[in-house]
Predict the 3D structure of the following.
Amino acid sequence: MDELRNVGVRQVFMLSGGGIMYLVDALGRSGLQYVCCHHEQAASIAAQANAMYANRLGVCLSTTGPGGTNALTGCAAAYVDSTPVLFLSGQVKTADFASLRKVRQFGAQENNIVAMAQPVVKYAVLVEKPQDALFELQKSIFIATHGRQGPVWVDIPLDVQSAEVEENDLRRFDPTVDLKNTPHEALACRETATDAAVDMAVRRTLELLRTAKRPLVLAGQGVIAANAQAALRSLVRRLGVPLVSTWRALEILGSDDPLFFGSPGLQAVRSANIITQGSDFLLVLGSRLDNMITAFSEPRFAQQAQKIVVDIDGNEIAKLAMTNVTPVVCDVAAFLERLNSALPAQPSVDYAGWRGFCEKMKARFPLLEEKQDKPSPLVDLYKIAAQIGSATARDDVLVVSSTSRCNTAGHIALSRKEGQRSISSMGMGAMGFALPSVVGGWFASGGKRVIMLEGDGSLQLNIQELQTIRHYGVNAKLFVFCNSGYAAIATMQDRNFAGFHVGSDEGSGVSMPSLEKIAEAYGFSFVRISTNDEIANGVDAVMAAEGAVLCEIVADMGFDEIPKCISSLTPEGKRVSAHLENPYPFLPAEELSAIYTELDDATKG
Ligand SMILES: Cc1ncc(C[n+]2csc(CCOP(=O)(O)OP(=O)(O)O)c2C)c(N)n1
Ligand SMILES: [Mg+2]
């Protein structure tokens, strides 16, 4: 616990148990703050959210057996989201190991959590000797926080937890010596480009900036992990180059910034995709360019652009089936530092024509004017998300659902301020992430107001954390999009299975409880917003209310997350994805080609 404090950890998210009794006791006496969740899955997610907000190590403590298996979800999420989280778990006494007897279980609630966690951690270890405890802890923390960050798991048997040791005799970890024989893969890419290679990439970038007519920067989470937000802002402002970002990097420029043009992807504001596809030089910084961004079509992604892709994990670049890619395997901060210092004092090219085109597209396709297939008198999710966005302050912590409509709306309709921290788990896309993230984010922010947007179905997973929010007096404004079921699944079944619903709405096995009664049971204030006319006053009422509030947004199952690159069947029966530049509802082909003619005209010469 002292070691955790020494590396800057402030909170540990936990649920107690006999299998961690000595660790729990030590935590209680350590001066670290312990936060008691009502489910280890929630503790694991809260620890990830805490790390995401603060950009430093998060810690989750769970007991043996079910404690560890429950925490695996947050661990897997931290792995795909590259979040540094330390998972500490208790294990049965070493003398009781089932493996000694070749049986399934011998110790109480025993299971092999290290083996289970292995595929979703950078490093997992069972500490079998008390003298190794500090070494393994230091090694794990080093690995979690270096290179491409991610989770680590340290499993500590009860007899190791309770052993008396001479502190000075404990083995210590030295990265220069102790990592020598560790495979490079296990450490997730600590082998990066040499300084000379980075300089070469910087020269190539400068050359492309001179020759390109339509340069664009695409910023991802890697920029934030590298703490390079300020360096990037300074770069794009000096050059006057437009920027798009992934959903996890929306804090780099505010939504209203004249250089910001949204997030390209499968579900996106139309203009962001048109602009990305129209670029002739794309500088990708710290984004793994996953399928949600490329809309499952890597070869067609920014097809006309020369691409420089900077990523700390070379495998993420190597996997890309794209042409014209110059890979730069290094930390984004290191690249930007060199690029910023190599820039000429005066920008040599003025991209005014290109910026003008981008602005025109942004103005021409406002999200709130996209036509829903099934218009409804109930609340429009994009409208209320936009209102919530404008009602937030820069200091607020935003927590956006990790899946479905609220995930999309929370990233494309909810406007952001520059530097505003936001939490959502992208890689897992799991239901149940929002409430624990409210807890983790609130503690990480030192008690700032937290604004959450979550679906009614997803709220049910980890709903027990309403009590954690209540217990700690979290200032949480919780907006719940209530469409009486799983719209994501119902829509999918409408499109692919002729409307045959299974496990997606009330008639097919899924119903939702009264949010008002839930608010009452947990002692939250309650606000209901039933129509678009009530949005402005309703959002104000939620924001103005004291303490924790649950807000029911009454909505229709038919509200869809458009524009969206939906797949369709060709006449030959082959399933193909829609092109990024023309998501559903489709623009007529002539309109799209006129747009690109306009782009050519704007950037000629
Ligand atoms: C843990 C988990 N289980 C299942 C899914 C599959 N899934 C994706 S969206 C969704 C429905 C979400 O319902 P809700 O939160 O009400 O959002 P809506 O689709 O209604 O907007 C389901 C079941 C998932 N993403 N995560
Ligand atoms: Mg729903």
About this structure: The longest strand covers residues 85-91. The CA atoms of residues 273 and 580 lie 6 Å apart. Residues 403-405, 429-432, 455-458, 481, 483, 485-489 surround thiamine diphosphate (ligand 1) (CB under 6 Å). Residues 195-211 form the longest helix (17 residues).
